[in-house]
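In the current project phase, we have settled on a layout for protein records. One protein thus recorded is set out beneath this paragraph:
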Amino acid sequence: MAVLLAAGAASALANPLAKTECIAPAKPGGGFDLTCKLAQTALQDAKLIGDPMRVTYMPGGIGAVAYNTIVAQRPDAAGTIVAFSGGSLLNLAQGKFGRYTENDVRWVAAIGTDYGAVVVAENSPFKSLKDVMAAIKADPTKVVLGAGGTVGSQDWMKAALTARAGGVNPKTMRYVAFEGGGEALTALQGGHIHVFTGDAAEALQQRKAGAKIRILAVMHSKRLTGDLASVPTATEEGFAVEWPIVRGFYVGPKVSDADYQAWAEAFTKVMATPAYDKLRDERGLFPLALTGAPLDAYVKKQVAEYRKLAEEFGLSTKPAN
C-alpha cells in the first residue's frame, strides 16, 4: 500500500520541465522558430529544464494547425509549449483558427516583442512620417505602400492604421502584398513601392546587412533603445499608431494548474537575468516579460482590440469553418 501511495505521489509531482517540447507553428526559420530557440537556449543555460528542449515544426494557417492540434488532440501535454505571436492573436480575432478562440488555451509567457515601423528607401523624398502622411492625404493614389502579407495581415493592418492616422480611408490606399518582408524591402529599394510598413528589428537588421533604407518612425508610445534610439515614435510625429508584435507561448487547455505555474515560474525566473537580456537582444527583440495571469489579461485585451479593428476595416471576424 505504501509503495502504491509513493508512486501516486511521484506521479502527481511529475515535473513538466523534465522532458520538454516547443512547437513552432511554421517551417524552420522565421519568427516562431526564433521564439522556440530562444526559450530552448535560455531555459537550458539557466538549468531550468531537464533534457534539451525539442523543437517540433507544425506549419499551417499561420498557427491554426498547431492551435487546433493542441486544443483537440493534446490538451493535457504538460511538457509542450507552443509559440505564438501578435499575428496569431490577430488571426484569432478574425476567426482564422476555426471554432477555437483565445479562451481555449492557457497563455504562459510573453518573452519579448518587436514593433511596427514605417520605412522608406535611403533616397526617398520622404524625410519624416509627417511627409508621408501629407503625401497620402494630398493624393493616396500616388503613394504606394507595401509589405509582407495580404489584406487583414499584420503588415496590412500597419499600413491601414498609418493611412487612417493621416486622415485617409484605408480602402483608398494603394497597397502591394509580398511574400515576406525581405521581398518588400527589395521592392522598396527598387522604387516599386514608396513606403514599407514592417517590423523595426527586421528593418534594422536589414539595414545593418547593407539595405539602403531609412526607418522614419516606430509604432510604439516610447522610443526604442540601442540602435533605434534616434528614431522618433509615430506618436512623437503626431500620429498615434502603435503596433506591438509580441512573442511568447501557450499550453493546452487541460494542463494542470501546478504544471502551468511551473512553466510560468520558470519563464519569470529566467527573464529576470542579465544573461536572458543578452540572448533576447541578440535575436532583435525588445523587452516584454509577462507570465501567467498578467499575460492572459494582455492577450484577451489585444484580441478584443484586434477584433474591433478588423470590424472597423470591414474584415470578417467570424470563424473560418
Remarks:
- The beta strands are 21-24, 54-57, 80-85, 106-121, 144-148, 174-178, 195-199, 213-218, 244-251, 290-291.
- Confidence is low (pLDDT under 50) at residues 1-13.
- The two ends are 51 Å apart (CA to CA).
